[in-house]
Structure formats: structure tokens, C-alpha cells
Amino acid sequence: MIEENLIQIKIHILGISPQISRRFVVSDNTSIAQFHHLLQMIMGWDGYFLHEFHILGRYYGSSYSNDCNAPLSHFDFKEKDKFTYTYNFYDFWEHELRVEKIIPLPAHYHYPKVIAGKRACPIEGIGGAKYYEEAITRQLLWCYDMLEEVAESIEDKKFPDIDFEEVPSWYLHHNSERFDKNRINKALKKLYQKNGNPDFWYTLGDYSELFED
């Protein structure tokens, strides 16, 4: 009987500073196809675009015929090994993954879990790492100007005249520093509660219902 292992991995998006990162654990019995969906949920992506893995010199993913049913154990990872995951070939979000630890699978393991992380996932379709950082700077400047206008209106005893239609809607809800480990883990738990159907992973596309309270 082949021993199943638990892999601890750190993933971060290349080209962004401070890092947007996650540290998580997953069974090495997880297939590449399943791993894609896990990374989408762990990072906070919506799954709208194509993707690819580059592992040990070979490509796996949306545009390749390599076997995406291969489990992570197939690659015989060692601690400190690195590989990449690219999502959205237009914005080209390239992630680096680093194997930090490999141990025998604990008896209490039931599903992948995030154990640490930093910052929120970027906005889908924003243009890539460079444009995201520029967009966040513009958002912060807009927030500063808005607060300044509110303060002046209060001082003048007037209602602030702020036109929210002039700015992208995400300005009002995206907090680039927010990271909610518990929310992600609750969604992963729901995912694995639905994991009885063998075709489940191939029909999975929208993760929003998994994040609903």
C-alpha cells in the first residue's frame, strides 16, 4: 500500500510587493485537476480564465493534453521544490509554489486547509500585477480625497457631494489588505462535503456558493 503524505505549500503571486500569499496543507493524493480548483479557492480567484501548471519541465492545464488526473505524489516532490501556476493568459497571473514540508498524512486529515496568508486576491480582469498595484494606489488616493471632502462638508455643515459612478465599483468593497483564513477553510470544508460524485471536479466552475454563509 502506497503511503499517502501531507504536503505543506506556500504560494504567492509573482510581481507584487508586499506579497499576496497563502500557506496551506493538502494530500499528495490530490490530482492536478483538483489542485487547480483548490488554488482558485485558496487564492480567491473566480475560475473565469484558462490556466496552466509548469512542473518539472512539463505543462499541465487547460491547453495541454498531459494527464491532469495525475496526483501530486506522481511528481515525487522534495522539500524546497518549486513550480508555477499561471492563471488568465491575458493578465498573466503567475504564481510560484514552494514545497515547504512533507509528512505522513495524519489520521485526522479530512480536507485541505489554509494555515496562513497575506493580503486579498487581486481583482479579476484588472490587467495583471503591474496594473493592479497602480489601481490600488489610485483607489487609496480616491479614498483620501473622498474623506477630505466629507470632512470639509461636515465643517461647512453641508451634505458631501460624492459621485460614486465616476469610479470603478470595486473601489467601494475591495480591501487589498484583507485576508480571511476561516472563510476560506469553511468553503474548502463545504467543497469536500460534496466530493462524492466522481464527475464533481469536472463540472465545478463557480465557487461563489461555497463561500456563502
Total DSSP helices: 4
- Biggest pleated-sheet summary: 7 strands, antiparallel
Q: What is the average per-residue confidence, as pLDDT, rounded to a whole number?
A: 87
Helix content: 25-40%
Q: Strand order across the biggest sheet? A: 4-3-5-6-1-2-7
Apparent shape: elongated
Radius of gyration: 20 Å
Instruction: Find the structural class using helix and strand composition.
Output: alpha+beta
Cα-to-Cα separation, first versus last residue: 39 Å
Q: Uncertain runs with pLDDT below 50, 5 residues or more? A: none
Report the portion of residues in β strands. Answer: 15-25%
Instruction: Give the total of beta strands.
Output: 7
Provide the succession of SSEs: EEHEEEEEHHH
Give the oligomeric state. single chain
Quick tags:
7-stranded antiparallel β-sheet, 4 helices, alpha+beta, 7 strands, 213 residues, elongated
Question: Can you put this structure into words, describing what you see?
Answer:
This protein is α+β, with helices and mostly antiparallel strands and 213 residues long. Helix content is 26%, strand content 23%. The protein contains four helices and seven strands; from the N terminus they run E-E-H-E-E-E-E-E-H-H-H. Strands 4-3-5-6-1-2-7 form a seven-stranded antiparallel sheet. The chain is elongated and about 75 Å long. It starts with a strand and ends in a 10-residue tail after the last helix.
Describe the structure concisely.
The protein has 4 helices and 7 strands, in the order ββαβββββααα. It has 213 residues and is α+β, with helices and mostly antiparallel strands. It has a 7-stranded antiparallel sheet with strand order 4-3-5-6-1-2-7.
